[in-house]
Amino acid sequence: AVLQQRLLQQARQSPQPPSRCSAPMLGAWVALLGELLHARLADTAMGEPRFWTVPPEQHVSQLFLHVGIVAISVCWSAPGLQPTGVLVGSSTLSEKIWGVVMLSFIVGNVAKKLYLGDDRTVDELIDMILPCHVYNMLAVYALLGTTRHARETVCNLLVYCAWMPIMAMVFPDTEGIMKCDTHCSPALRALFVALFWIHHLALAAVPAILAYYVKLGRFILPPVNRGSFAQYVAFANSYIGVSLCAFALLVGQNINYSVWPPPLPPNVEALLGGSYYRVTVGLILSFALGPFMRRVYYPIVAAIVGFATEKLKKHDVQSNTTGRLEGWMYSVGQGVGLMPVFRSRDTSHAARDPTTIERRHWPPAGLSRWIGEAGPELHLG
Asked: Which of 21, 22, 66, 342 is the most exposed place for a label (fewest CB within 10 A)?
């Protein structure tokens, strides 16, 4: 009833015809939702002087802004959001190993938060929606999934969002772990800190892992175009700009600094726009850092992975351990009269000299099955 009265009053006061009332109507909604938000969080805000660094009405208007960005981005990325069907028959052994490793980090972090939570278990578990944990879940889905959404769409998002674990390591937040004096021994604290760094280093290696599998044809990385970029912008704004901020306001917690900014020097906070810091950071992540990861960082990582792979191939050819072993077996077989075992219809030098077999077939069949370079695992659906 209050909402209807406010909207009717706003409409009567507006001189524009009904077809032009969208802006005043939106302003009325923002003002009303801002008042409701202020009333709901009044008690929570009393314990934190910086809680309303961003006024309630600005929280609402900024959420509307990010919703608009998401809507435009989804329209632009429509062609890129349609890949359906199965890309690969099943995950290879190495992909399953990487997927289980990434999954173990999720289980380990949940166990750690349950242990540290005590009477704040729910608050600790809420941290599992932070960017790095979401990035971890995307990596698990990509490595263990076989659909085009997992192997193409999520692959694209993982490359664009590679800044998530990097930013977490540049600005590490281990304060909560270091304060667990009541039920943490020094050794356990050190273990939790080590888990933090190992976890984020493993996440930082995801682009390199993807680059390797993209080279094998196990994943598809969409080209740099409007559709693939709009996919990322839609995801980043819907997750960080809308979902994370709305949930933080709903529970009254500063999740990922969504309600008030971190303690920054006054000049830095002013540079970020003061109460508009969230919009500024969102624009930087969407239109600067994400494209940098895709256009600059990932190509460098892919080049390093390609160079390392070629070096390993050359090293295998030079060492030729398998070839020498088969040459020794060839000599033994020739001495005991087992030559027919090694006969071949190919009369080339490579066929007559078993020590060259590794030069013609790298990697060995067993390794190929393990990494998915050969055999039925390579057939794309």
From this structure: 22
The pLDDT tens digits for 27-70 are 788 888 889 999 999 888 888 888 999 999 999 999 999 999 99
Among 213, 262, 263, 232, smallest CA distance to 99 is for 213
The amino acid at 41? L
Phi-psi region of 262 (alpha: psi -120 to 50; beta: other; left: phi over 0): beta
Task: Evaluate whether 7 touches 27 at the Cβ level (below 8 Å).
Answer: no
CA dihedral 300, 208, 162, 167 (to 10 degrees): -90
Distinct helix (H) and strand (E) counts, the chain: 23, 0
Q: Averaged over 196-205, what is the pLDDT?
A: 96
* Residue type present at position 197: W
From residue 200, give the alpha-carbon distance in Å to each of 148, 164, 173, 194.
Answer: 26, 9, 12, 10
Q: CA 208 to CA 317: how far, in whole Å?
A: 24
Q: Which residue has the tokens 């932070």?
A: 130
The candidate with the shortest Cα–Cα distance to 290, out of 189, 162, 173, is 162
Q: Which residues contact 155 (CB under 8 A, 6 or more apart)?
A: 142, 210, 214, 219, 220, 221
Q: How far apart are CA 104 and CA 99, in angstroms?
A: 9
The one-letter amino acid code at 82 reads: Q
Q: How far apart are CA 261 and CA 274, in angstroms?
A: 9
pTM above 0.70, yes or no: yes
Count the neighbouring beta carbons within 10 Å of the beta carbon of residue 212.
19
CA distances to 37, 79, 243, 252 from 66, rounded to whole Å, are: 18, 21, 10, 20
Average pLDDT over residues 311-328: 62
- Cα separation, 308 vs 212, whole angstroms: 10
Amino acid occupying residue 239: Y
Question: Using 50, 70 and 90 to split pLDDT, how confident is the model at 94?
Answer: very high
What is the C-alpha separation between 246 and 254, in angstroms, rounded? Answer: 11
Q: Which residue has the tokens 């794309």?
A: 380
Q: Quick one: tokens of 257?
A: 């600094």
